[in-house]
Amino acid sequence: MARAFTFIHTADLHLDAPFAGIDAADPRIREALVDSTYCALDRIVSLAVERGVDFVLIAGDTYNSRDKSLRAQLRFKSACERLSSAGIPVFIAQGNHDPADGWTANLTFPQSVRYFATDAVERIEVLDPESGELLCALYGRGYAIGPTKLNLARGFKRETADENALAVLHANVGGQEGYESYAPCTMDDLRAAGMDYWALGHIHKPSELSDSPRVRYAGSPQGLNPKEDGPHGCWVVTMERGAILAEEFVETSCVRWARTTLDISGLDSLEAVHAAIREQCSVARAEACGRPSVLRLELSGRTEAHAELARGASLFELVTELRDEQMVESPWLWVDRVRDATRGVLDIEFLAGVEDFTGDLVRIAAEAIRDPELSSALLAEALAGVDSAVGAKERDAASLIEQARDVCLDRLIGGEDR
Amino acid sequence: MRLSRIIAERFGSLRSATLGPLGDGLTVVLGPNEAGKTSFTTLVRYVLYGYPTKRDAEPDYECDAGKRLGRLVFSDGDSQWALERAEGTHGGPLAISTLAGPDRPELLSEVTRGVSRDSFRVVFGFGLDEMVQIETGRGAGMDILSKLYAAKVGLEVSPSDVRAGLESEASELWRPSGRNPELNALKAKITEVKRQIADLESQASKFAQDQQRLAELDDQLEAARADREAATLRAQELGAAAQKLVDLETRVFEATEQAHLAREEIAQDDQKRAELVIDERLLAVAAELGEVLGESSGFRERLRRSGEQELEMSSLRARAALKLAEAGVGSPEADAADMGPETTAGVERWKTRLVGLESQAAMSRRAADTAKDALEPAWLESDKARRATSGSRLWAPGALMVALGLVIVAVAGVAADLLQAVLGLLVTGTGVALLVRVLRPQTTAPGALSREQVSGTAGAAELAAKRDAAELQQALDEWRTWLSIRGLGHAGEDPTAASLLLGSLKEYRALVADANRIAAARDQELAACAAYRAQLASLTEHVAPALSRLAFEDIPAQAARLSQDLEVARAADLTHRELNTRIANHESVAAQADARLALATEDRLSLLDRVGLGASDALLVATEAAAAKELARAATVAFDKIATDHTALATRLDSEGRDNAMATLRLELAVLDERRDFALERYAVLAVAETLMARTQSFTEQARQPQVVRRASELFESITEGRYVSVSVPSDGGEFIVFDPDSRPRPSSELSTGTAQQLYLALRIALIETLDEVGPGLPVLMDDVLVNFDPERKRGAAKAIRHLAAHRQVVLFTCHPETARLMQEVAPDHSQLTLDRC
Asked: B365 lies in which domain range?
């Protein structure tokens, strides 16, 4: 009878991943972000060594082969060597970002690093290095040539003699939105395999799909963009005879992403807005549990301060001042984009009934919003030039026209120049 | 509310002037040139909107007398207020004062509401210079029509300005062929960063190739290392072989020479050995004889000692005889006497005892004699004492001590203890002394000894003396008996003599014993000498047959001769054996040389065979070794080059692998993308807003502006007396167009100056008529604007002005009296003021 064993389940490290959607103007935030995925990897390795786990499972997307990052592969190799020195083997099922035929730097990894086969589900026995007894059987399959739409989960089948059976796969279970439907499968597919634990990758938000069998997404150990807010880390699981004795999600991210919408209705000055954002920064800093964090804000609501926010560089100056304030605190907090989605205190319905320029404007805008052809024509007329030069973007025409309308009204009604 | 007076202080030529009162409707101000008409018009603008700065390119109307100051007095019913502005910074300070009625602190904004400085200058307070600006200003940000329309409908800013602002802001974000706008710059940066990333990706792709190249270099390095080691080994092998070959050839030569020399030595030594004569008989016993001869000195020593012992023995025996004679004792008695330790001790005891007894006897005698001598005086003293006293207290102790002393003496005598005897005598004497003292006072004291007591003491002393004498005699008898028993009877009674005799006899016996011992030793020496001679004789009977009969004294000489012969024989034997050894050694050397020669020859052939050079000689091998060394050097150079390449490549790859430039660039790209998206978002809003504004403006111009244009057309038709029937104001800022009754268009640029000014006046009047609450307190100040009109059109214009004055206060400045008169005709109820030349 095998003894209890402990393992770490991680995935989607995306080492050296290109961050998206952040205006990291400050060198400190840049440095922290450039190093954050490695920092998370180091924390996982340290955690494995400190806890003395029996092995580490990586469910795909260790790095982006497409990015051809030498540093990513070298740092991953170093991490594996640290684990190998501690006698901790690593089992990897490759994902869509690091398929078997992806670019590699031809590095030599320690023998304790094992990649699952990519042509079929491979069963690997994990033995107790001291007694030689079988601890558990690992089942896994990696991606051979990048994204796959095959249901790889159906190839998993537990051998009846296995006392402990774990599966490692990079897949989208249940067609989760916001993620490509690679290796699509259902919970029924997973249950049919008869595994004790499913170590999944691909979904960057850590999640618990099922407790029987235990199905977990580790999520990315470090949030990779403002949308990946909240805690990110890995699972530390202890099993014995197919049962979970202990399970813990340990946060490993080195920079915490946070995003929130701040309703500033009722605030009528930039000072009040400033104070409200500062308070939100405090909340985000507290939630980061001592980590540096990046906060993305959207200001919403109809407010007297809208005109001030919309005027010239007011918002930019406000954000700059907030950044200066927040970056000197410890841990630092980077106020990323503050999106002004506020609206002025305009009675659009009233204006729509007024027979003057503003009424004309409101009505013309409304007509364009109602009629897709008109809105397309309006956007094409306004943006064809920039789109051809900079690149076309998907836009919410109605929202854009509303914003443009409000800008016009703000200036027409609230402007100073006559 | 209306402007009732204009007061100028130090304003250009107007040092201190007041214009007023102004009428509610039309006021015609007639004044010659340089009367200050234009100055008043301008002053109103400066008071309302501030004095211009140098950059504003407006006439300054400065005055040498001091700071400029203007005051406008407004009236509303019975109330009056003054707006006063003195020259100063930021347009100069404005003061609002109430001359009558309630305060109106917001008077200025009430008066000018919705009318900007430019609008006032172009529309409300204008002269000929400003007439055309209603058209030309549209292209320079002064779309006065639009502005005033916006003001009319309650907009804070004109649509044209909003649109221009949007356009301006958008152009700061992006321009089609710009470089500096944010999006243009970001696009360029993104392109550059992408290029850098592509370069790095290219490097990364090359990394794998370089890794392969590194692996190949690893193999090459290993091969080069093997080549280098093989070449070095070959060079070392040939170098060593060449050296070894030289050694071997040297060894062949040396071995040959050595064998030859050894054989010559053998021949010489063999000759010497044949010439040697050796006494074999003597050598046969050489060992034993050598040992015996080696003991000849011992023989001589023994012989010498035996002589000395003979002499000493004789001397001792003579001295013993002499000692015996001195003691007077024959040798038999001397030999028979007991001289053991008991005897010696007994003589001493006897000696002590007898001396003690003799001493005791003598003292007893003296004591008895003393007591006897003291008897007579005692008698006399006794008598005296008896008369004086019956006794003394010292009597008893004295008597007791005398008795005790005598007892001690007696015991000492028996024990022959001299010390004890002396002690006894001392006690006795003390007792006697005490008694004498007792007796002496008794002669004078009543307590003195009696005569009987003294007699008793004397008698006792005498008895003791006799007893001691007898005891002494008995001891002497015993002493003599004791001596006889020990054979010493002839020693006499004197214990000291006996003691001396005993000593002499002991000395005699010692001398005899020594003599006997030496005699025995001498005999042993002589026996040893005899044994030596016999041993020597037995060994040399064939060379010295008479030796056994030689006297001891001749033996040393004979032994010396034998020693010499033996030495000669041994030397010859040694030489023989040395020659044998030498010959054997030489033979061995020769054999070894032969062996070495054979071995060296074989090694040489083997070595040449091993290095693959067959029958070469050392010179050829050395040449080959030099060539191999050169090859080894070349292999080392090749290895070093590959190693250098390997190290450089490995270092570069290691450095590249640790470089975070890629990550930094990707983050930079993300930042730029984010900024681009953000800027694009803002641009999109601005661009769509600007488009919305454009569309709305277009719609408005078509749907709403015709009201103004229609009124302008009516006025223009009236002024031109039907020459032109309509006016068009293009919304795109284009040139005004007028149409004749046949709808033939004519752009303003083709109109005469006067006609164009009539068009501009018509537009102003039409516009002002529609403004209602825009600039409600502002008068319309016209500075000789009719000067270029012909009389007919001037009349038409006057009528239009009269019509305007029905809605808004109008002040018409003119320097032409006919114009004043015309206005009088057209509007007889107007106010008229005159100005004199300044």
From this structure: 339-486
In this structure, the strands spanning A113-115 and A90-92 are parallel
Question: Would you list the DSSP string of A232-273?
Answer: -EEEEEEEETTEEEEEEEEE--SSEEEEEEEE-TT--SHHHH
Q: Quick check: helix, strand or coil at residue B49?
A: helix
Question: Among residues B67, B72, B159, which one has the least CA distance to residue B112?
Answer: B72
**Domain-embedded: residue B480:** yes
Distance, in Å, from the CA atom of B43 to the CA atom of B447, rounded to the nearest integer, reads 185
Query: What is the pLDDT, as a whole number, of residue B142?
Result: 57
User: Best of B209, B216, B664, B696 to disrupt the A interface by mutation (most A CBs within 10 Å)?
Assistant: B696
Q: Domain limits of chain A?
A: 5-251, 255-345, 347-418
Among residues A2, A170, A14, A183, the alpha carbon closest in space to that of A91 is found at A170
Contact between A315 and A264 under an 8 Å Cβ cutoff? The reply is no
Show Cβ contacts of residue B455 under 8 Å, excluding neighbours closer than 6 positions.
B375, B378
Contact in structure between B331 and B463 (CB atoms under 8 Å): no
Does residue B420 form part of some domain? yes
| Total count of domains within chain B | 1
Distance CA B513, CA A75 (A): 117
User: Which residues are CB-neighbours of B438 under 8 A, at least 6 positions away?
Assistant: B392, B394, B395, B398, B447, B448, B449
Quickly state the pLDDT bin for A418 (edges 50, 70, 90): very low
pLDDT above 70 for B150: no
- CATH 3.60.21.10 describes domain A5-251: yes
Cβ-proximal residues to B161 (8 Å cutoff; 6+ apart), any chain: A415, A417, A418, B141, B143, B146, B147, B150
Phi, then psi, of A344 in degrees rounded to 5 = -70, 170
Measure in Å the smallest separation between the Cα of A376 and chain B Cα atoms: 11
Asked if B121 has any chain A CB less than 8 Å from its own CB, the reply is no
Q: Do A105 and B657 count as a contact with CB atoms less than 8 A apart? A: yes
Residues near B631 by beta carbon (within 8 Å), at least 6 away in sequence: B231, B234, B235
Cross-strand pairs, B29: B813, B833
Q: Is A7 helix (H, G, I), strand (E, B) or coil?
A: strand
pLDDT tens digits, one per residue of B668-695: 888 888 888 888 988 999 999 999 998 8
Give Cα separations from B312 to B304, B317, B514, B521 (angstroms).
13, 9, 9, 11
DSSP string over A16-63: TPPP-S----SHHHHHHHHHHHHHHHHHHHHHHHHHT-SEEEE-S-SB
In chain B, how long is the greatest CA-to-CA distance?
226
What is the Cα–Cα distance from B759 to B727, expressed in whole angstroms?
8
CA–CA distance, B799 with B827 (Å, rounded to integer)? 8
Both tokens of B522, joined, read 């001498």
Q: What is the dihedral of CA B15, B20, B24, B28, to 10 degrees?
A: -80
Helix (H, G, I), strand (E, B) or coil at B544: coil
Query: Which residues make beta-bridge pairs with A15?
Result: A63
- HSE of B35, CA atoms in CB hemisphere, 13 A: 19
What's the rounded Cα separation, in Å, for the pair A25 and A31? 11
Q: Indicate the residue type of B53.
A: T
Using 50, 70 and 90 to split pLDDT, how confident is the model at B416? low
In a domain? residue B778: no
Residues β-bridged to residue B176: none
Please report whether residue B115 resides in a domain.
no
Residue contact B156–A383, C-beta within 8 A: no
Decide if B206 touches A, using CB distance below 8 A. Answer: no
B48-65 burial string, b = 16+ CB within 10 Å, else e? Answer: bbbbbeeeeeeebbebee
For the CA atoms of B734, B739, B744, B746, what is the dihedral angle to 10 degrees?
-40
Query: How many angstroms away from the CA of A108 is the closest CA of chain B?
Result: 11
- Indicate whether A416 pLDDT > 50: no
- What ipTM does the predicted assembly reach? 0.80
Instruction: Give the chain A residue nearest B171 (alpha carbons).
Output: A386
